[in-house]
Inverse folding.
């Protein structure tokens, strides 16, 4: 029933949205892209959205779309948000208060956008070099760096902050390298605001539909469309309508031509700078009440903001079997051996197709890791045994890898040698770059090291190494000169090894489900209060089941001991307990919650 008390089926009901105003933009965007009958009739699939980085529209669109939809940042919003970030730095660093510094940095940023249009890798590299440029380090500057340099900063703390800021934009260069603009949308919104002012509600009647139609006609045809409508309806346009429409269209054309003149653009920029300076001055006394650019400053699905309850519903629970899954072998090379090391190379192989890409690092490579992998990072360039390799931003690399995984028509099990290392780093990147749902084609991860220890028990008994290069030399007659630790070479070696000694079902037996390992990554920090109460392995099982510590508290507060027992021991689709049915463990958790309560 609608708010008028009638069934929506017996009248043309105008109530088509019941959510909050904040959710309306993303809901409308998703409906336009995913459900438009007009687009479906002409067979048009929307693959790219252009917009600011302040809304969740792209997430709503991707959630309801089977195809990959890409997001490009609007260049006007981008420059505005970039300027805001510079003015924020101005508060803490006196060098930034020099009236020439911020305009110079904005000019460098704008030049980088224009000169590298359509080339995301070069754009990212140029943007990353700008802090060095303003600090007098011109070794990595391109042809854009010419003549004398009036601006030369000294503060090393400011250099670090600027490097972080420019680094964020460099990492997201693929979003705005094409210099996309949503200005046409802003134009049509402006026309609509004149025909349907916000102080009156026209959407409750057909008036809203006609005003929107008139807006589209005005944008495409000009005000003369009124004459065409009247003609089709055999209605007299009135004495002054034709002349008035002509005057409006003439003014509109003159205004559009004038807006393109260099003098007009210069004045518009001058007024914008004055307005911006005035706004910044007021914000210093008022404080900032709205934070924009969240799409660049942080990932849309960072660990602190991921809705794990929603993910439990979105991520499929895949039954891993020989018939339902394909095997894809993969390997990573990293900048070190620690948990927070950067990924430098991703490589994979599926059937006869291979994938390999190098990622642009943001910091130096550990010396020990460099000796092992042959990778060195010198002067903003990555080298593999002294040969320069082309690199791309991490997000771009993840998108490319995700598209490669889609070569598999079935969900895929990713197999790596010592998979706990490779999968941990890959999952960290997937989470940090807000791409958990994008990789839902992954059924899980499997470790070839575990499988090899099972199929070669005599080797284990003799305490021989299961290191991949040693296995390849002992079992496949590889030479000592072969360059292992190049990810693609390692992957192809692993494929030969596994094809020779293992069967597909062996990898599926030791597979850890993607949904579970994602939940472990996201939720295990919340279960820190259970450390020392139950085993670490049991904590990981609780996290893998998608149970947050707050859920345990909520269930106990509502249903007590029985609720916790039911939560932990309920059977899954595989007819196994969700976590455990061990009475002692359940009682220990209950006792802990009772004491905490």
């Amino acid at each position: 029933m609608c708010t008028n008390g009638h069934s929506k089926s017996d009248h043309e009901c105008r109530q088509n949205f019941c959510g909050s105003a904040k959710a309306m933009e993303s809901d409308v965007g998703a409906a336009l892209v995913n459900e438009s009958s007009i687009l479906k009739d002409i067979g048009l699939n929307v693959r790219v959205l252009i917009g600011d980085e302040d809304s969740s529209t792209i997430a709503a669109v991707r959630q309801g779309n089977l195809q990959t939809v890409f997001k490009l940042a609007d260049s006007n919003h981008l420059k505005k948000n970039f300027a805001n970030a510079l003015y924020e730095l101005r508060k803490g660093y006196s060098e930034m208060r020099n009236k020439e510094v911020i305009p110079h940095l904005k000019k460098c940023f704008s030049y980088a956008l224009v000169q590298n249009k359509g080339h995301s890798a070069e754009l990212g590299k140029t943007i990353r070099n700008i802090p060095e440029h303003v600090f007098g380090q011109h070794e990595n500057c391109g042809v854009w760096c010419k003549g004398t340099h009036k601006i030369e900063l000294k503060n090393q703390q400011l250099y670090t902050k600027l490097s972080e800021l420019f680094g964020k934009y460099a990492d997201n260069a693929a979003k705005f390298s094409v210099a996309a603009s949503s200005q046409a949308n802003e134009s049509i919104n402006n026309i609509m605001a004149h025909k349907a002012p916000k102080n009156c509600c026209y959407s409750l009647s057909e008036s809203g539909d006609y005003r929107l139609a008139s807006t589209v006609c005005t944008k495409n045809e000009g005000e003369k469309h009124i004459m065409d409508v009247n003609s089709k309806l055999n209605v007299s346009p009135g004495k002054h309508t034709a002349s008035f429409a002509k005057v409006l269209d003439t003014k509109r054309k003159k205004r559009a031509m004038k807006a393109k003149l260099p003098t007009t653009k210069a004045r518009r920029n001058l007024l914008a700078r004055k307005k911006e300076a005035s706004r910044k001055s007021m914000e210093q006394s008022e404080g900032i009440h709205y934070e924009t650019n969240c799409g660049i400053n942080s990932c849309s699905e960072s660990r602190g903001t991921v809705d794990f309850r929603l993910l439990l519903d979105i991520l499929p629970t895949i039954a891993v079997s020989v018939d339902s899954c394909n095997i894809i072998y993969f390997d990573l090379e990293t900048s070190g051996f620690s948990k927070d090391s950067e990924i430098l190379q991703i490589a994979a192989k599926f059937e006869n197709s291979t994938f390999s890409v190098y990622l642009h690092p943001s910091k130096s490579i550990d010396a020990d890791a460099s000796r092992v992998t042959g990778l060195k990072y010198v002067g903003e360039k990555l080298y593999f045994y002294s040969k320069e390799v082309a690199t791309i931003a991490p997000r771009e690399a993840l998108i490319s890898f995700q598209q490669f995984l889609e070569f598999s028509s079935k969900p895929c099990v990713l197999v790596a040698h010592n998979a706990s290392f490779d999968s941990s780093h890959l999952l960290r990147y997937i989470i940090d770059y807000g791409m958990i749902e994008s990789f839902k084609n992954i059924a899980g991860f499997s470790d070839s090291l575990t499988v090899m220890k099972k199929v070669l028990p005599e080797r284990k008994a003799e305490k021989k190494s299961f290191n991949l290069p040693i296995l390849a030399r002992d079992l496949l007659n590889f030479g000592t000169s072969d360059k292992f630790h190049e990810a693609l070479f390692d992957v192809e070696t692993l494929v030969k090894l596994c094809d020779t000694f293992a069967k597909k079902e062996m990898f599926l037996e030791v597979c850890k489900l993607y949904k579970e390992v994602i939940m472990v990554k996201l939720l295990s920090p919340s279960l820190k209060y259970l450390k020392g109460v139950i085993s670490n392995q049991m904590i990981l099982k609780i996290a893998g089941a998608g149970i947050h510590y707050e859920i345990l508290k909520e269930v106990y507060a509502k249903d007590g001991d029985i609720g916790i027992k039911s939560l932990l021991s309920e059977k899954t689709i595989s007819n196994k307990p969700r976590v455990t049915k061990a009475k002692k463990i359940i009682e220990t958790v209950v006792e802990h919650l009772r004491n905490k309560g």
Remarks:
- Residues 90 and 98 are 9 Å apart (CA to CA).
- Confidence is low (pLDDT under 50) at residues 284-289, 298-305.
